[in-house]
Amino acid sequence: MRNDRRAALLCSGLLRTHRIKSMPTPADAARPPFPPPGGAELVEHVNAGCRGLLERKRAEVAAIDAEAAPLVDALLELTSGGKKMRPLLGWLGWRAAAADPEPAAAAAHPAVVSLGVALELFQAAALVHDDIIDRSATRRGAPSTHKRFEQLHSAQRFAGDPEHFGTAGGILSGDLALAWASEAFEQAIAAAPGAAAETTVIFRRMHTEVIAGQYLDVLAEVDLRTADEQALARARRIAVYKSAKYSVEYPVLLGAALHGGQAGLLTALSETTLPLGEAFQLHDDLLGVFGDPAATGKPVGDDLREGKRTALVLTGLQAASAQDAACLRAVLGDPRLTEEDIVEAQRILSSGTPSAVAQVEQMIRELGLGFNQSLGRLPGAGVSAPVADDLKSLAHSLVPQFRADFDTLKQ
């Protein structure tokens, strides 16, 4: 939090707007088509599936009491947008195990659509709870779910504390999304009689790992006794279990296992998608400090306000001078950060030889090399060339630096 020492720590007169030129942005990265051919049909089917399930659930909840309907309204809005990245990855996994049937036919398969709905509802639950934990006021440019309930409290002039009411409403809405994700997953299993037994194991493991990863993320914000090297290793571990696995690896594995994919295929897909997932999170860490709010849907510097000990921040603390490191520590976790504070943190993270930004970009580059090597081995596991190409296209959209590095290698 802000204190009397903080003003002395800030480097007066050095504040200036800083742009990371080496980090691709949505405006200047030449991206491949998103989604891959056939994916647009899947997005339409999953959007319709989410809307249909949630509208049925809204009627069910409203039959209990009409005043409980806002629990579902928030989820309807949250699942109506987004790129549907996780359903698309599940679709690619299904196609990988199916020796690449017609993409549009795979996109319309009830098992693939139900899996997509399950992944979207799981993601909705994670986002709702994450926003509460991080005290985030916005999500995708709109009020986050718990803030919607706060606004309801104020608009209806309820008694008591609007913040507590908002937190309670958000938790319960997220709980419903998690429960209904399991229901949609059961529908996916029912529509895929050839599903491997591993499918349910993966889905349950995903729940456990995300929640454990979320707790470790919270712990890292308050347990400052860990040495820098250990803290960085923990940050990388959090990136894997809180984000990389459930965002990228497990959707692909669930799609493949749902079609009956066996151990060899699942291993090959895991080796390809896990580095992609970790790189995706590291890129997101960069956007959390340097991103454009119009593109991210979140205020710039939110990770700093929340005190996130990301790989970027921890690398910055190691790379900075003693004065700059003290300055960076002073701003972490301060919800009242000003624009000048954020610019100063950006300066610190992009200064030095090498800078924290450069080191994180190097981590992404190394993960990209691992992704490309494993991608090249997928045909040996029975994955068709169109599926591998679509996975590469999706990877380049998720992590623009992957595309830039890939184009450099081709030259």
TrEMBL record:
Q: Which SUPFAM superfamilies match?
A: Terpenoid synthases (SSF48576)
Per the entry, which co-factors are needed?
Mg(2+)
Where are the membrane-spanning stretches?
A: none
Instruction: Extract the InterPro entries matched here.
Output: Isoprenoid_synthase_dom_sf, Polyprenyl_synt, Polyprenyl_synt_CS
Please, one GO biological process term? Answer: isoprenoid biosynthetic process
Keyword annotations for this protein, in alphabetical order, are: Magnesium, Metal-binding, Transferase
Q: Which residues form a coiled coil?
A: none
Which Gene3D superfamilies does the record match to this protein? Farnesyl Diphosphate Synthase
Q: A Gene Ontology MF term for this entry? A: prenyltransferase activity
Any Pfam family matching the protein = polyprenyl_synt
The text of the family note is: Belongs to the FPP/GGPP synthase family.
According to UniProt, the name of this protein is Polyprenyl synthetase family protein
